[in-house]
Amino acid sequence: MPGLDLTSVSRVTNHIGTLIARSTYMTTEMLLRVFPDLLFVYKERTLIATGRDGWIDGESQGLQGFYHRDTRLLSRYRLLVNGKPPRLDAFSAVDPYSTLGYYVCPPTPDAADKRDALGLSEKEIDRQVVISVARFAGEGLCEETEITNHGLTAATLNLAWELKADFAGLLEARSDKRQQSAPVSDHWHAKPVKQAELRFDYKHPQLDRGVVLRFEAEGVTFRYVASTVMCLVELGPQQSQRISVVATPVFDGEPYEPAVTAPSFGMNHNGALKQQRQTGGGVCTLHTHNSTVQLAWDRAVADLWALRLGQGDTPAEKWVPAAGLPLYDNLFGRDALTIAGQSLMWSPRLAEGALRLLARHLGTKDNDFYDEQPGRVPQQVRRGPLAELGITPWRHDYGDYAAPCAYLVLLGGYHLVTGDKERTREFLEPARRVLGWLQERADLDGDGFLEYKTRASNGQKHQGWKDSNDAVRYADGREVEPPIAACEIQGYWYAAQLLMAEVFLHMGEPSRAFGLLRDALALKRCFNEAFWMPEEDFIAFALDAEKQQVTSIVSNAAHCLATGIVEHRYALALVRRLLQPDMFSGWGIRTLSSKHPAYNPLRYHLGSVWPVENATAAFGMKRYGFTRECNRVARAMFEASTLFEHHRLPEVFGGHQRDARHPHPGIYPDACAPQGWSASAIFWLVQSMLGIFTYAPLNLLIVDPTLPAWLPELRLLDMQVGRGKVSIHFKRDRTGRTDYRIVERSGPVRVVRQSPPDDLSASPLTRIKELAGSLFH
Asked: How does 433-459 read in b/e, with b if 16+ C-beta sit within 10 Å?
């Protein structure tokens, strides 16, 4: 309440918040992992995928390997001691970039025979030598191994690193099916003592790839025989030996020096924030006594920072994250744009970077192999072997209808958060090109709707939100063949036109602005006439090639809510239907109704649950004033985060119903974790619950907070609004009303309470009262 002394009751508030969190959040001993047999560390363009023992055996274990730029440089990397693998004691990731493993072994090959003579037990002799292996990713691989003899007798250890380089693409490694190959040469150079270097080169006529491994240790001589680097280490009691191994990628004759030159652990949430600020990126921070929400937020921050691709010429471009790991360690258009859009409250720096980086990759010509047309935004940009050789179209694939609309939506959102007229003006030229493609070529039959159909022989069949080959089904289970007008694409196009109208109006082009506004309103009218299904009280999945409704009940309708294209008279029925048991599993909204004949809870788009889509649904519900329903979806997502390792929401998880027989939902077998837009979904969920909308051209931050009982208070610090920043404390009182207090403000920022733009219950009188109440803050 206004005027409430929050300081005097903070201790009581903390206690109440803790009790509520404990009573309403599920306590579980479960801990789910995607790719349960693998462990990943990653930074920028480097991915290290090992087995649970910490070593790489990609020839028999698929995805295992040391990768750089989508290419597996090492398919085998294993340490043997006296001819055997050392026994694993413990191995784990320390942070997104590093792992630490402990191993033990006997002091000599014949230690077992000497056990009785030494008077030692089997356990003592087998664990006399302790080996710690600290490994770090960052434009390469850096490893520090320390071997310590903790026994009373000397240790003689023959170390051998088994190595192999195969230069497979990541997708080749995943499928275990090579589509390109060439001989691999090895070159060994060793000094008499301390240092040695091994280089593998790929002898493909079109691919210049290699990897250099440097071994270094004081007083040690290294040898190389048959793909194995060896050395002898002799240690007296309580003596140690350190050995470093650095693997450096070589692409097009240019070695990439590993970014980790002085490896150290501890890149936690605070470390990530510190690095972000050092690189010129202001970020919003969240503080709450609800540990589940706090941990999910902190994990999202750390993951987005670690997923950075580090590409481009400006600091902002280097912030742009990969889509996800291990499979999508590349620039994906709609992923980058979605991540940036969901993160605008956290930091507009990602949006600036995504807009800049993708502008460099806009289509410039007609090229059917890549589905390229002038002004199209790429679906993905890969630099792996298959893409470089033209075996796949993914070097710059343009088969996506969501990304072009998302580019314009993000530009509009960036403008509303920053109010930076000069920076926005820089993006107008690429935006005009994207807008031109949408207006002139995306509507295949001239009926006012956008229809997709690939022109590439090996192109993306479906180019909407659900882009898997079997995603679009009729109600009887049959697959729908393109051309298809997907409902969410029309919503994206509607939002893109509205937001670009705002941009053009602010940039002094009113005629262009009003033209877009007129077209958007016409699209909304036609959309609701063509897509609404009165017998289902729901939005049709799509219109097929014959302009007949695809009547399957799917999650895509939630995107239409988020964009505002749904007429008010249909919103209530739509929200209710999304939360029916066949759509809402208890862990989130499914992609497909469980009543559909094609439903499968563990299929990519046929019944699974996507965190990014649920954040979209929550935003859409809040937009139309359904605050309780918004909070219900948000709660499901935060509770789901407690099931997964590190409180990390994966790309997608199972659609099993939340009941006594299904205490967890399952995981889609090939889900990425971390996944960029699952991380940024956390920011959007918080933004939706607080009803935050920014209008920087007028220095306005609009809020309509409705915190649930399980999250009675939180603070958001350093939210950017134009040239200013504001920190706000949100708190729910005993009556269930959420109020707010401005903690700190810099610059010309005005915080105003207003119901969301399409709130069905907000009368003009309500809005006037809310505006008047804002004067007391």
From this structure: bbbebbeeebeeeeebbbbbbbebeeb
Residue 650, token pair as written in the block: 């994966």
- Rounded to 10 degrees, what is the CA torsion of 291, 293, 298, 301? 180
DSSP code of residue 70? T
For 590-645, the pLDDT digits (tens) are 999 999 999 999 999 999 999 999 999 999 999 999 999 999 999 999 999 999 98
**Global pTM value:** 0.91
Closest CA to 146 of 241, 287, 32, 66: 241
Q: Return the structure tokens found at 557.
A: 């309708």
Q: At what angle are helices 402-418 and 428-440 packed, to 10 degrees?
A: 140
Average pLDDT over residues 307-314: 86
Structure confidence by residue, pLDDT tens digits, 338-384: 999 999 999 999 999 999 999 999 999 999 999 999 999 999 999 89
348-373 burial, b if ≥16 CB within 10 A, otherwise e?
A: bbbbbbbbbbbbebbbeeeeeebbbb
CB 417 within 8 A of CB 355: no
Residues in CB range of 620: below 8 A, 6 or more apart: 558, 559, 560, 561, 562, 563
Residue 632 tokens read as: 């219900």
Helix (H, G, I), strand (E, B) or coil at 363: coil
- For strand 700-703 and strand 750-753, is the pairing parallel, antiparallel, or unpaired? parallel
Evaluate the CA torsion angle 630, 350, 719, 22 in order and state its sign.
positive
